[in-house]
Amino acid sequence: MERRRGMGKTALLAVLCFCVRAAAGSDPEAEMNFEGIESKFSLRTPAEPDEDVCYLVPGQMDSLAQCNFNQTSKTFVVIHGWTVTGMYESWVPKLVDALYKREPDSNVIVVDWLVRAQQHYPVSAAYTKLVGKDVAMFIDWMEEKFNYPLNNVHLLGYSLGAHAAGIAGSLTKKKVNRITGLDPAGPTFEYADAPIRLSPDDADFVDVLHTYTRGSPDRSIGIQKPVGHIDIYPNGGGFQPGCNLGEALRLIAEKGFSDVDQLVKCSHERSIHLFIDSLLYEEKPSMAYRCNTKEAFEKGLCLSCRKNRCNNLGYKVNRVRTKRNTKMYLKTRAQMPYKVFHYQVKIHFFGKTSVTKVDQPFLISLYGTLDESENIAFTLPEISSNKTFSFLIYTEVDIGDLLMLKLQWEKDTFFSWSDWWTPFAFTIQRVRVKSGETQKKVVFCSRDGSSRLGKGEEAAIFVKCLEQPVSRKRGGAKKASKENSAHESA
């Protein structure tokens, strides 16, 4: 009874204060007004990660106790993107579950803006401002009423939700700790100003995964330009392995046409699953490498970890803040766990005559102390006599320290008259390999001093040199080092 009486007095005082402010001409909106909030804040539980069983309601202090909100733990706020069906997509409970497995005592809040998110895309895109405002008011309420530290708040936004998270971060009175953008939406945001999209200013630290940036900038599903402190482009950011036509046919055969939309979303949604991977496989973090362009990365020129040039992808990213956006690249597998091992391979092709060939297919096999990875296929855009070429290869297998490698020049799949009449072979003395994950460099030597490499012929075998040779041309080594640094720097 006493509690009810107290609440009545509080309500009466609030009305009196409102009247006084109104009479004085002050703006009642200056105080927190939660009536306009349409977004819902569902505190999911580890037991039911796919159900909205309890909502935190801004302005209603008892909702935190009712939902068992843990005020001493970190809070993850998950913001979904555009939806055709008006329902949560299957990744939401998977992310919730992974967050709880990694941080069992945390609070995982899913922001429900489904009604606004299922409109015509430009309409839903415009609604991100209001959703961001809702989230910001919710966070400010938590901070002001309960002294909840914003250093414990991590926003995770997917597609349009990434920009809603950015707007929320820009509107909170104090900065939140971190925002992770999971393939932020491209259309209407690629050329947008920072205040209405995700940007580095929206949190103490902003990391972004770009997984579907195909097409012209204004038509790309995912935003192409960097919008965080660290922007990671897995597999170049344009298309993800496993998201092809063959995979679509398999999906249709297994599940029918109901899940065909998964093909469209496959690369876009891969950003979420890469982050989930980083939560579940703590001991196997995927490594990303700083590079100016994906073309330089494909040449293996950027596998350096000096001066924060490499970083973990996902949850355990090292928080590096620079004046400029840092673009990073890596390769991944088609399925979880996504981690692969990166290698730069450098070969000097000797030839008695001057020959240049383009788009040549090769196979390389690596043998190490732990395992082996055979017949890794790669294509060199160009090879020429008496020139050195660098390229990137990667393997799903942890082969340990390298001991031996084989190199084979594959025969073209079609019949080539030029190769029939004018057979040609290069000779190779050494192969230099650098591991991105261990940063170790190994030089392999031909067992016969030099090995013949001809198209369609047997593989050339190289073993670890007994003594690792020292470059005689110091100036040349310095020049090469500068070139690599230029590619690696962001």
UniProtKB/TrEMBL annotation:
It comes from the Eukaryota. It is found in: Cell membrane; Secreted; Secreted, Extracellular space, Extracellular matrix. SUPFAM superfamilies: alpha/beta-Hydrolases, Lipase/lipooxygenase domain (PLAT/LH2 domain). Ca(2+) binds at R197, D202. One of its GO terms (molecular function) is heparin binding. Residues 341-464 form the PLAT domain. Tyrosine nitration after lipopolysaccharide (LPS) challenge down-regulates the lipase activity. The keyword Membrane applies. GO terms for biological process: triglyceride catabolic process; very-low-density lipoprotein particle remodeling. It is a peripheral membrane protein. Its main location: membrane. The active site is at S159 (nucleophile), D183 (charge relay system), H268 (charge relay system). Keywords: Calcium, Cell membrane, Chylomicron, Disulfide bond, Extracellular matrix, Glycoprotein, Heparin-binding, Hydrolase, Lipid degradation, Lipid metabolism, Membrane, Metal-binding, Nitration, Secreted, Signal, VLDL. Its EC number is 3.1.1.34. Residues 1-25 form the signal peptide. Residues 471-490 are annotated as: Disordered. It catalyses: a triacylglycerol + H2O = a diacylglycerol + a fatty acid + H(+). Residues 480-490 have a biased composition (Basic and acidic residues). One of its GO terms (cellular component) is chylomicron. Homodimer. Interacts with APOC2; the interaction activates LPL activity in the presence of lipids. Key enzyme in triglyceride metabolism. Catalyzes the hydrolysis of triglycerides from circulating chylomicrons and very low density lipoproteins (VLDL), and thereby plays an important role in lipid clearance from the blood stream, lipid utilization and storage. Mediates margination of triglyceride-rich lipoprotein particles in capillaries. Recruited to its site of action on the luminal surface of vascular endothelium by binding to GPIHBP1 and cell surface heparan sulfate proteoglycans. Belongs to the AB hydrolase superfamily. Lipase family. This is Lipoprotein lipase. It comes from Phasianus colchicus (Common pheasant).
